[in-house]
Amino acid sequence: MNFHIPAFVALGLDPKKTKFYFQSENIKVAHIASESSKKVTANEFKAIYGSLDPGKIYSAFTQVGDILYPQLKERMPGMIPVGIDQDPHIRLTRDIVRRTKQEYNSPFR
Fold first, then answer.
1. pTM to 2 decimals?
2. Which three-class secondary structure string do you get for the chain?
3. Crossing angle of helices 87-101/54-68, nearest 10°?
4. What is the mean pLDDT of the chain?
5. What does the pLDDT look like over 56-65, one tens digit per residue?
6. Nearest Cα to 30, choosing from 54, 65, 58, 63?
7. How far is the CA of 49 from the CAs of 26, 27, 30, 57, 105, in angstroms?
8. 101, 108 Cβ separation under 8 angstroms
9. What is the pLDDT of residue 104?
10. What is the pLDDT of residues 32-56, one digit of tens each?
11. Residue 88 — pLDDT band, cuts 50, 70, 90?
12. 10 Å Cβ neighbour count for 46?
């Protein structure tokens, strides 16, 4: 159990009416991250994030997976609530979707 959940319950969140999402348990997000990483060159990544350290790469593509995950079952308009510091993830995701739309059998068509 995530250590934050008891705090949310103590603040009045009803666990029976809530779906708790754990990124680490969502294999589909990992799959999107893996597939997305094939769409970006090292130079593009470095231009967005400034460096190519493994943690930053893993984190960035996992964020792409989180952003695109709700679109897997059904295309729908969506709002991604992020702070200004998350702008690089949004730009990276936008570029990946543009490239992926052109491919046959793309999950993000």
1. 0.72
2. CCCCHHHHHHCCCCHHHCCCCCHHHCHHHHHHHHHHHCCCCHHHHHHHHCCCCHHHHHHHHHHHHHHHHHHCCCCCCCCCCCCHHHHHHHHHHHHHHHHHHCCCCCCCC
3. 70
4. 84
5. 999 999 999 9
6. 65
7. 25, 25, 20, 9, 29
8. yes
9. 45
10. 999 999 999 999 999 999 999 999 9
11. very high
12. 12
How far, CA to CA in Å, does 80 sit from each of 39, 61, 68, 99?
A: 21, 16, 10, 20
- Asked if residue 37 lies in contact with residue 30, where contact means CB atoms within 8 angstroms, the answer is no
What percent of the chain has pLDDT above 90? 42
Q: Which of 107, 30, 98, 34 is nearest to 74 (CA)?
A: 107
Residue 4 tokens, joined: 């934050």
